[in-house]
Amino acid sequence: MTRAAVLGAGSWGTTFAKVLADAGCSVTLHARRPELVATITATRENADYLPGVRLPDAVRATGDAAEALDGADVVVLAVPSQTLRANLTGWAPLLPAGSSLLSLMKGVELGTTKRMSEVICEVTGAGADRVAALSGPNLAREIAEEQPSATVIACVDADRAAALQAACHTRYFRPYTNPDLVGCELGGAVKNVIALACGVAAGLGFGDNTRASLITRGLAETARLGIALGADVTTFAGLAGLGDLVATCSSPLSRNRTFGEHLGQGMSVAEAEQITKQTAEGVKSCRSVLDLARAHGVDVPITEAVVRVCHEGESAAQMVREMMSREAKPE
C-alpha cells in the first residue's frame, strides 16, 4: 500500500488526502493547529475548510511533521505558494529518501520568480525527476463531494508520473500524465491572475462576453509566457491550461474569482482579504508573474492590469478603460 503524507490541511490539501485514501493509499494529513488535528481525529471532518465532508478512515491527522513524513512514499505539498520555502526548509531534513514530491501549489515565488517545482528542488536538493505538479480544473469542494473531475500530473520522469497517477485515480477523479512540467505549472499560476480580472469584471456588472474575452486573451498571455520559458504550447489547450482557466474564471467556488469580484464592487484588497479569509494566490503571484514576464520580454497586459489594481491603487473601472483603449492589433 502506498503511504502518502499531505502537508497542508486547507481545503485542497484535505480534499486531496481524501482522494488518495479513496484510491487505496494510507494517508497522514499534517495540520499546523492542534485544535484542527483534534477536530479531524474526533469528527472525521475538517469543519474549517470542508464542512459536511466525511474523511475516510485511512486519513489520519497529525501536527507532527516528522510523524507525517515517516515512511512516506509520496509527499504532497499543499501550502500557500508564498510560504513554501519557509515551510519546506524545516521539512526537508525529514523527507524520506527517494520519495515522490508532488506539488498542489499554483504560484510563482515573489522575489525569485521561481516555479514551485524549482523551489522544491532548490530547498531539498532533490533531482527534477523526483518532483511533480498536479494541475487542472480542480475546485476542491466539488471534488470533495465526488463530482467527476480530471487533472494532470506533470513530471519529467514518466514512470514516476504513472505511479502518482495510480496513487490518486478514483471513480470520480481521473488523472492524466504530461511531461511538460513548465507548462502545467505556468498554466496553474497565471490562471489565478486571469481569474482575478474576471472577478473584477463580474463585480463591475459585466457579463459573458467580457469573461470570454478575458479567458481567451488570458490564455494567449499564458501561452506567450510559456513558450518563452520552453513549455509545449499544446499544454495550454489541455486540462492544466484551458480547463483550469475556465473553471477558475467562472465558478463562484473560485477564491481568486470571488476576490476579484469584491475588488470590482469597490472593496480594497484588505477588505476583500477579510471577507474571503482563505488565500487567493493570484493577489501575490500577479507581481511575480509580471516580473517573470518582463524578465523574458513577454507582453502580459491583463497581468499588468491586475497588479495595478491589487498593488498600485488603481480603480477597477480605470483598469477596464485602460485595457480597452490599448492599441488595436492582429489577434
Which parts are unreliable, with pLDDT below 50 for 5 consecutive residues or more? none
Name the CATH homologous superfamily of the largest domain: NAD(P)-binding Rossmann-like Domain
Estimated share of beta-strand residues: 5-15%
Average pLDDT score: 95
CATH topology descriptor of the largest domain: Rossmann fold
Query: What is the CATH C level class of the largest domain, in words?
Result: Alpha Beta
| Count of runs of 4 or more consecutive helical residues | 15
What is the radius of gyration? Answer: 19 Å
- The strand count comes to 8
Main structural class? alpha/beta
In short:
The protein is of the alpha/beta class and 331 residues long. The protein has helices at 11-22, 34-43, 65-69, 84-91, 116-124, 140-144, 158-167, 181-203, 208-228, 239-250, 255-264, 269-276, 281-295, 301-311, 316-324; strands at residues 3-7, 26-30, 59-62, 74-77, 100-103, 131-135, 149-154, 173-178. The chain is built from 15 helices and eight strands.
List keywords for this structure.
331 residues, alpha/beta, Rossmann fold, N-(1-d-carboxylethyl)-l-norvaline Dehydrogenase, domain 2, 2 domains, 8-stranded mixed sheet, 15 helices, 12% strand, globular
Write the layout of secondary structure elements.
Blueprint (H helix, E strand, L loop, with lengths): L2 E5 L3 H12 L3 E5 L3 H10 L15 E4 L2 H5 L4 E4 L6 H8 L8 E4 L12 H9 L6 E5 L4 H5 L4 E6 L3 H10 L5 E6 L2 H23 L4 H21 L10 H12 L4 H10 L4 H8 L4 H15 L5 H11 L4 H9 L7
Parallel strand pairs: 1-2, 1-4, 2-3, 4-5, 5-6, 7-8
Antiparallel strand pairs: 6-7
Helix pairs in contact: 4-5, 8-9, 8-10, 8-11, 8-13, 8-14, 9-10, 11-12, 13-14, 14-15
